[in-house]
From TrEMBL:
Keyword Transmembrane helix: yes
Chief location: membrane
E.C. no: 2.3.1.275
Keywords: Cell membrane, Lipid biosynthesis, Lipid metabolism, Membrane, Phospholipid biosynthesis, Phospholipid metabolism, Transferase, Transmembrane, Transmembrane helix
EC category: transferase
Matching SMART domains: G3P_acyltransf
Catalyzed reactions per annotation: an acyl phosphate + sn-glycerol 3-phosphate = a 1-acyl-sn-glycero-3-phosphate + phosphate
Organism (species): Lysinibacillus fusiformis
Protein name: Glycerol-3-phosphate acyltransferase
Quaternary structure annotation from Swiss-Prot or TrEMBL: Probably interacts with PlsX.
HAMAP family: PlsY
Gene name, Swiss-Prot/TrEMBL: plsY
Length: 186
């Protein structure tokens, strides 16, 4: 059952909302601006409505994976693994030659669905970091630091291990944005 759930989670992550939103608007987002299939690029290229639809679609797939885990009464660590796999599917969709989005909206969906109290620390860390950095990209890094710190503080490092690996993959996908934001601060 675990393998089936994780495989299904990865495949659900492969649903790239931005790809289909782009099709509706007649735009290939993989050829525009950042070439990323995510809400931010959809919003920058197409507009606010495209951002909202992409964000909601990507977050929803994260929520659905966790909801299925609850429905099937899976253990916490299995659901957290599913959360990591849906993010991996978004980052590395097989049908797009492993070139997907950056995973933030999907992470928000799984983070809220898994543990709103832990996710609150992500929000607090992001907001505090935003005050000091004035950069959404850098404040996201601060949010992840707070989130992982909250996981450690709650004594949940072991069950959340795969999700932390997924977060590291997200940060690697964001590396060019992080470097650009750091250059602007100098």
């Amino acid at each position: 059952m675990i393998g089936l759930y994780w495989a299904l989670s990865y495949l659900m992550g492969n649903f790239m909302t931005a790809y289909f939103v782009g099709k509706v608007y007649g735009v290939n987002l993989q050829a525009e601006r950042s070439k990323n299939l995510g809400a931010r690029n959809a919003g920058n290229v197409i507009g606010k409505a495209a951002f909202v639809w992409t964000f909601l679609g990507d977050a929803l797939k994260g929520v659905l994976v966790v909801w299925l885990g609850y429905l099937w009464q899976l253990e916490e660590w299995v659901m957290i693994g599913g959360a990591a796999w849906v993010i991996a599917g978004h980052l590395f969709p097989i049908w797009l030659k492993f070139n997907g989005g950056k995973g933030v909206a999907t992470f928000i969906g799984v983070g809220i669905a898994l543990s709103p109290s832990l996710f609150l620390w992500m929000i607090i860390g992001t907001m505090l970091s935003l005050v000091f950095t004035r950069s959404l990209t850098l404040s996201m890094v601060g949010g992840f630091i707070f989130y992982i710190g909250a996981i450690i503080q709650a004594g949940k490092l072991e069950p959340y291990g795969l999700l932390i690996i997924a977060i590291m993959c997200m940060l690697i996908k964001h590396m060019s944005n992080i470097q650009e934001s750091l250059k602007r601060r100098k």
